[in-house]
Write a structure and sequence with these properties.
The complex is a heterodimer of chains A (about 100) and B (about 210). Chain A is mainly alpha-helical and about 100 residues long. Chain A has four helices and two strands. In chain A, helix 3 runs antiparallel to helix 4. Chain A has a domain of about 30 residues. The longest helix of chain A has 25 residues. A two-stranded antiparallel ribbon of chain B has the order 1-2. Classes of the chains: A mainly alpha (about 100), B mainly alpha (about 210).
């Protein structure tokens, strides 16, 4: 049990510090114009990385499983300009069905 | 906001169920959601503890994953005013989803959307974790419901509107490629941090 709590406290303290670093150190000041290019590209780079690791990552392996079916359903829903909620529900439902069938 | 709340709640319930099943008990997952408030890192830590991994490995994976909040925090730093303590507290409302929907393009962000979304997501996250941790037996296996696909689908839906320029598309493809390439090679968490470095291709334009 203690191990769990050490992890909870350590991760909590570090994450709070990570989130606060920018706002506390340079809060309120405008960023140098040179940084605006990278800042604009940070979201696409990070979001794409989160999507692929959460869909294809299985610990330290890359796998194609029911989650990929969910991702495909999300892509179809997005292409059909469905609302975000529909996209998310379609992905979960498709994954659940694919998992039930395999 | 509604489109953000449902996936966050699904993810929170999933985290509560899986963390409790991973031997974290009932209280620790809830405290973790209340203090860490960053789902992916929490999942990483819980799953490593579940596999019998060491505290150091679990903490390192979550810390690496969550270190993306350093560049994320810098990107929105101009929006934070007032005393250091106030900035520190408000900064905790930064999560992937609130950050992504507040992005107005051109490296600028909307303070109202960022903090508003964070304020809605935070109680939702803690409450849904509580439901999962306490009533996990009623929920069953979150994977059976496909809930593990809900979050990547949300991230994808948040990603698409960001792809306004060729450079943004290149950053997305580059970030995805770097992360995938590193999954088999690097410890958990590192692929995401490495993908953030891809944003530096934006320096060339300046």
């Amino acid at each position: 049990m203690t191990e769990v709590w050490i992890t909870v406290v350590a991760v909590g303290v570090l994450t709070i510090a990570f989130k606060a670093l920018g706002p506390v150190a340079i809060g309120g000041r405008t960023l140098p114009p040179r940084l605006l290019g990278p800042v604009e590209l940070l979201a696409p780079a990070l979001l794409a990385a989160l999507v692929v690791t959460q869909v294809f990552g299985e610990e330290r392996d890359l796998v194609v499983d029911a989650r990929a079916v969910g991702l495909a359903a999300a892509v179809v829903a997005l292409a059909a300009r469905a609302p975000i909620l529909v996209v998310v529900v379609a992905a979960a439902a498709a994954t659940a069905v694919a998992r039930a069938l395999t | 906001m509604a489109p953000l709340v449902l996936p966050a709640a699904a993810f929170g319930v999933s985290f509560g169920v899986l963390a409790a099943a991973a031997g974290m008990g009932t209280l620790a997952p809830i405290v973790m959601s209340a203090t860490t408030f960053a789902g992916a890192g929490q999942f990483a830590a819980a799953s490593i503890l579940d596999e019998g991994g060491a505290v150091v490995a679990a903490t390192a994976a979550a810390a690496l994953l969550n270190s993306r909040y350093v560049p994320i925090g810098i990107s929105v730093a101009p929006l934070f005013h007032g005393s250091r303590w106030r900035r520190l507290v408000e900064a905790q409302l930064i999560v992937d989803e609130s950050w992504a929907i507040s992005n107005r393009g051109g490296g600028r962000f909307d303070r109202g959307l960022l903090l508003g979304a964070g304020l809605v997501l935070y109680p939702c996250w803690v409450l849904s974790t509580t439901v999962g941790a306490v009533a996990g037996d009623l929920v069953g296996d979150p994977e059976r419901l496909g809930l593990d696909a809900a979050f990547p689908a949300l991230f994808l839906a948040l990603l698409v509107p960001q792809l306004r320029t060729r450079l943004a598309v290149a950053a997305a493809l580059g970030g995805a490629a770097v992360a995938l390439a590193l999954v088999p090679l690097a410890p958990a968490g590192l692929p995401i941090v490495a993908a953030a470095v891809v944003c530096l291709i934006g320096l060339r334009r300046a």
